Fold each of these.
Amino acid sequence: MSRKSIIDDPQHGNKAEAFEAFDDIPTNPNLTRTIGDVINARYGRRDMLKGILGVSATTALFGTSAIIAPKQASAMSGKGRYNFDELTWGNDETHHIAAGYDADVLLRWGDPITADAPDFDPMNQTVEAQLKQFGYNNDYVGYTELEPGRGLLCVNHEYTNEEVMFPGLGRQDKQDFAGMTKELVDIEMAAHGGTIVEIAKDAAGKWSVVRDGKMNRRITPLNTEMTVSGPAAGHERMKTTADPDGMTIIGTLNNCAGGMTPWGTYLMAEENFHGYFWTETRDAEGKPDLSAQPQAASMKRYGVPGMWYAWGKYYDRFDIDKDPNEANRFGWIVEVDPRNPDARPVKHTALGRFRHEGAETTVSKDGHLVIYTGDDNRFDYQYKYVSAGTVGDDAAANSALLSDGTLYAARFDEDGTITWLPLVHGTGPLTAENGFNDQGDVMIDARLAADLLGATPMDRPEDAQPRGDGTAYIMLTNNTRRTAEQVNAANPRAESSFGHIIEIKEANGDHAATTGTWSILVKCGDPSIAEVGAQWNPETSANGWFGSPDNCAFDADGRLWISTDQGSSWGKTMKSDGLYSLETEGALRGHSKLFFRCPVGGELCGPYFSDDSETLFLAVQHPGTDGTKDFKGFERDSTFEDPATRWPDFADGMPPRPSVLVVTKQGGGKIAI
Ligand code: FEO
Ligand code: CA
Ligand code: CA
């Protein structure tokens, strides 16, 4: 999620935060679509808001077998497709894994990832050290095998929490960034981006880092040069002072989830890039004033400038008054070849510019590359990309598939149909009359294009995971801003604090199809509270239900796993974020079990299963930070000196450290088999 998740939560948020209108609030003005009106006319708004639609009408309309189930504490171990005894829910200072499994720390923020890297010293951080050490806030984790038992781990570092990262600082956005020196900003920049590091498994099945791995490297917004492909490459709006050709970009920002391609490259999704941009131009209320900006409409729709970080104080390119086009160069999908440390990463503009959560790939029936990617903002859209050509044996030719294809935005209709709307210049409303002079404009302003096409504003599309059979699962994490008037069939709850999961079945099982059907797999939250309107399989226990689905993955047997990020709202469930199995087929469809839970204040990212499903990588992001005022016995904000937990080291003076864990079954074998 983001460091500003707190703003959206009336119970826990600080409404006095500056620039609220420019960061984590909806920017989509196109909220007049009336899917909900049709449902309301048929079933009545009051009934729908009580959750009755979730029981009967949804089942009738979309054929889901799951129903609302206010049932607690059912003993489910041994039943279903996932063979493990579920954990007991809760929240404390450390992580927990189901019995019979190990969850070992593999990589922590600051761990050396090159042979010449210094050991981590939190009291004496330097940019030079951080550039050779594992970055902060690990999010996406991917793995590509070099040989059996040895391969490259690819990890995104989404953002930084200065209050627990640096001694004596506290939250800087609440104090006009007074303490942020250029040296600290540079360390923050070096802690963002990605890590590629070789890991290997020993004879006992334990994984460790290979520090002298030839392909080990850090990718950062400070110093990694990237090139640009696709319709916006070299576009007028991509040209800056430092790059008059619009073809070379320094770095990548806010890399959230991602994906691995079938040919072993690593896709990094640039999510909340807007937060890094800055302006000194303020209106009478002291808020950013865009009235003199020629691209003001676009900037507003994207939330630029977000003013989350002080980088614009020291780097002109992050100041929109000085280099307004720089903001157009972020919000893309970045492809990295982890096997070639000399290769420049590529920003593929054919996949559109928005707050990309992830980029999970599959191959359609006739060989086209298909990528599902969501725009994680309240009332934004689900997208899918289909390549023009087909996947073959040549890696370079395969990468070119990301430069030539069609981006679609999803419309979810009330009859259970999904229609994928192409973002193609010159078709429909995507013309010069509406401000789109070419396909580059359509991709740079993909949100504005999808607005005109009538895509369905969703409850924050996070990760989306396709399975080879033409099925995909979409995580809608929550949307407390949706009003009763804005409810629709695909986003069925007003003020949704807990989110839901949609299942898509593409027509004829073909991921390249432009139509399909959709249904709601689960509506999240506590099923024992009727007002929540949750929808789970009735066998789901008090441990098994969850809130705010975020990332997801399939294991080798095509079974779905969900990780959660409740942000600072976790106090609404009192459950830590964690990893859950989720049945998708048969009588147990919609049944979930808790497999792993995070230490307090952390969200769970990854997950990623090895091809043999004997190893599961998990990423615990920002331990000790989110919502620690609700942590019993602590009840205050964490700082470097006084954190809610010192996970995973629990050593005096050591701050909490975002870390990647490796999960294996004791005695070996496939996970949950
Ligand atoms: Fe970075 Fe949408 O979570
Ligand atoms: Ca996420
Ligand atoms: Ca995923």
Amino acid sequence: MKRAFILGTGSCLPARKLTNFDLEKMVETSDEWITTRTGIHTRRISGPGEENYLLAASAARRALRNAEVKPRDLDMIVVATMTPHMIMPSCACFVQAEIGASQAFAYDLNAACSGFLYGLDLVDKYIVSRPEMKILLIGSETLSARVNWQDRNTCILFGDGAGASVLSGGGKGSGVVDADLRSDGRLWNLLYMHSPASRNPDLEQNCHDCCYIQMTGRDVFKHAVKAMEGSVQELLRRNGLTIHDIALMIPHQANIRILHKLMERLGVAEEKVYVNVDKYGNTSAASIPIALDEAHRQGMIRRGDLLLFCSFGGGFTWGSMLMHW
Ligand code: UT7
């Protein structure tokens, strides 16, 4: 049975950097607080010409070049996002038009920060039934448009960007090995963002604030560490592996302290974990594909390496995946 295998990767970050020192002038915060509590130094903020679908299309073009696949040879495009350019049409349809992927069907997927991981699992299911398919999977976000720039609890955390992968059926023993995906909708109100003109009765009192990302940070932190650790341990156990079998771990990038706690609990060496939260902050569904593309371009991944992805986000949604490069 052929599994989803990554043929090429690409990413695109907006040009504008917003530093912690810039944020000191906007809200009551300090570079010292942000650095020690989150590990973030800068994040990218999109401007005109850097709308979500344009970042996504640019990451896609790079991934297609890297994979040596032509846009017209794509069968399917999935964009994982919670900040689409419009509610309808999907970001994926905009990308399809932008890159000229005339044969591809296209749609979006929303699983917050776990979107790319859920997308990889979805793509794997298509590939298992039709291994010749060529699929473009993108994680792309413009979170800066959905952040309350007066709320220091959240505005320091997030950034914009896009990452893309082109996938098809791999050879024997390559590609996706297994995935463990989870959700718990009961905890939705610890991390959420509402649509601007919502009629949801739960949110009537505070609707203005609800348009922005709302988070009870400390609780999300605790759940994130516990949930990702549990998922990774279960996935390794189920596949008869230990953490020492992993060549590189690419986790969702939300907070360096979450990553350090996760490394400690899993007993994984720091040099085996890709980290770029310092440069880009939390880019939600884009964080794993951006990190994957950087690790790939830096030559950190070799054929046959066993990769481990894990994520946690609003919903709650979380999970982990094993993949042979
Ligand atoms: O993508 C997945 C979802 N997101 C996450 O995984 C994020 C999870 N959470 C976190 O990363 C952390 O909880 C935060 C970075 C958001 C916050 O760090 P914390 O260590 O949990 O701080 P806290 O929320 O407990 O706040 C501690 C103090 C508070 O003051 P008091 O009440 O102790 O006087 C906050 O008001 O820090 C204050 N604070 C700030 N101070 C300076 C909160 N934000 C800031 C700020 N600058 N930007």
